[in-house]
Design goal:
The protein is mainly α and 253 residues long. The chain has one domain. The chain has 9 helices and 2 strands. It has helices spanning 5-24, 35-53, 67-91, 93-105, 123-138, 141-155, 164-185, 187-206, 212-252; strands at residues 111-113, 120-122. The chain has a two-stranded antiparallel sheet. A hairpin with a 6-residue loop joins strand 1 (111-113) and strand 2. Helix 3 packs parallel to helix 7. The longest helix is centred in the last third of the chain and has 41 residues, at 212-252.
Length: 253
Amino acid sequence: MTIGPELASQFILVFARVGTLAMLMPGIGETMILARARLALALLLTLVLFPVVRPSLPALPGGLASPAMLGALIGEIFVGFTIGLAARIIIAALQTAGAIVAQELGLAYAQTVNPAFGGTDASIGNFLTITGLALIFATDLHHLAIAAIAASYMLIPAGAIPSVADAAALATRAAVQSFSVAVRVAAPFIIFGVLFNIGLGLLSRLMPQLQVFFLGLPATILGGMLVLLATIGVMMAVFLGDVRAFLANLITG
């Protein structure tokens, strides 16, 4: 089969959307993964999805250098960036939850390098993020993410540039859901922090000579670690459930 200009332009359009998503997709779009590996995965996904989505691709007269091709290419990159950024915001819920947990346990000063997002963050947040990413692959949620990429061509056909209002609405909905997930994941520690601080306040009133700070900080860390050990399964189940719901919503529209 001869690869003509029309087939080549359609393949480039699919690669533009899939490649942008691969650079932002949680799990494979992390900074610790080589860019060549991400590009190779994007090319592989494009080869797999191209026969499926090709019937919905528009015919672009004028070849690869036409203004219509340039406009469609910009639109595909914009679509991939919008969907990938929304997924990235959802995953950032674990980092937000980790910051809340660290603040409640008095471990906000414990900062380590975040291998997923770069920079330094709370150690507990890094632990939750890496655990969440590992569970996404362990529970095959990345298959649902690939299905969401294919379904995006049903929601936003290739060559159609979505409105800025729709992109802003998706980002806003993802940010709201991300913060909601973060609060629900960190809820046990919020309750623990409130009850523990009330108990320390009562203890300091009953025994003014007691050095509450020297007693409270180690007890807070020990109690928080026990709460983390007891609730880590529930926390990850809540997170995975919301990620699954978000990806399913992208598929069904």
